[in-house]
Design goal:
alpha+beta; SH3 type barrels; 4-stranded antiparallel beta sheet; 3-stranded antiparallel beta sheet; 2 helices; 20% helix
Length: 173
């Protein structure tokens, strides 16, 4: 066992001695000398660092948009002439859908009355005349012609006040 270790050590020393020849050392020195004369790359300068400017949050007194709020009906003390949704109104089938999902697909005229044909998302077809309600915001039809249906909706704003907004449905082909 001892002989084997001695033999391995002797062979390792001989192998290392072969690597240290003067010829290899001269080649390495020549390579280093030549690489000093090669053109060098240029490193671009660092960008200018802007100083940190702190931001002051000044909206602490505004309503938090992530807190759900319930719109309450107006108090009984509100002005009698103010806009309000009808109290004894029975909702029709077209009031179950938002106005954006309803499509006007045609018109009908019977005698002097003009009706709009309204298609719901569940592919049912309804006939609507002036004065009928549709949409989820108490929208009442005010005018129908061959290409458009106009209605006024009652919309509650953030101050719990009701206001009228006019909407138009265009004929879809």
């Amino acid at each position: 066992m001892m002989r084997r270790a001695l033999l391995m050590t002797t062979l390792s020393c001989l192998a290392l001695t072969g690597c240290s020849s003067e010829r290899h050392l001269d080649e390495v020195r020549q390579f280093v000398k030549e690489s000093d004369n090669m053109p060098r790359g240029r490193i671009p300068p660092l960008p200018e660092v802007r100083p940190y400017e702190p931001y002051e949050y000044a909206a602490f007194d505004l309503l938090d948009p992530f807190v759900p709020r319930k719109i309450e009906p107006p108090k009984a003390s509100s002005v009698a002439g103010a806009l309000q949704p009808p109290k004894d109104h029975v909702k029709g089938p077209l009031e179950a859908f938002s106005l954006e999902t309803l499509k006007m697909v045609g018109t009908l005229q019977q005698k002097k009355d003009i009706y709009a044909l309204i298609k719901t998302p569940d592919n049912n077809l309804y006939r609507v005349k002036t004065g009928d309600f549709m949409g989820q915001n108490f929208g009442r039809v005010i005018d129908i012609d061959e290409a458009t249906l106009k209605l006024k909706e009652l919309v509650q704003d953030s101050g719990n006040e009701w206001k009228e907004e006019e909407r138009t449905l265009l004929l879809q082909e």
